[in-house]
Amino acid sequence: MNYEALLIDTQDGIATITINRPQALNAINKSVMTELNSFFGNDYKSIDGLKSVIITGAGEKAFVAGADIKEFASLDAAAGSALSKYGQDTYMLIENFHLPVIAVVNGFALGGGCELAMACHMRIASSNAKFGQPEVNLGLIPGYGASQRLPQLIGKSKAMELLLTADMIKAEEAKAIGLINYVAEDKAEALDLAKTILKKIATKGPLAVAKTIQAVNAYYDESKDGYQIEHQEFGNCIASEDCKEGALAFVEKRRAVFTGK
Ligand code: CAA
Fold this sequence. Notes:
By secondary structure, this protein is of the alpha/beta class.
């Protein structure tokens, strides 16, 4: 993997992806989006023993301050729609990733940055984080999923308010309305908390973790029958070696050793 805009560091099976354009508040330009797409689409396979992913931004000021506005100038309707579609598809790869992905939001999470955090399975913010969808300030609507995921996470009324006013909210309010899971003091503490949660999940059955993500996501996908997926995957899990090991470990009063099979 040879990335220009992302830093990737793997420890204890946790890959930490840092969006590394601090001079532009980590705004998502073409390189960032292409590299995220490559990582979640294919490149993760080259990391031995990968168990989970953290996404964060370089520095203390911003997670991601949105899509790179400086790349918008020359776009016509077709090119704008294609940019949005590629971003949506990339964020879908994250949302549907078979391993847990946590956003550590270390500052501004605006526009495409808030959308990136929402595509992750959980969000932990530092106390200086600020969230918002300021697209209407630019005469735009969100392009990377906020019109869908923001109402899913916080309900239609509040989502409409944030999307139409472009107001920014602080981390504590984001937690109060259900946009994020936890607020930590600073970035280091947020990273520690994310790693603690991911290490706990890594002790569970990998197949069950992947299928839980799939089943929960089905609730939000009108093309899928979530209950059908739940009973089908319940069956697949119950027939798995992991479930046999989990049940045996329960009876033998010991910790299960899962293989993901
Ligand atoms: N795109 C490109 N560059 C950006 C950027 C963005 N989204 N956000 C910040 N930057 C750049 C600034 O242009 C500036 O660069 P220069 O030093 O070369 O001028 C640098 O980052 C630092 O930014 P500021 O000087 O503006 O920092 P500040 O502390 O005064 O303000 C801020 C911080 C409030 C986050 C402000 O930068 C801001 O409002 N940024 C834009 C936020 C935004 O509108 N995001 C939505 C983008 S559209 C989108 O994301 C659509 C979508 O859904 C796909």
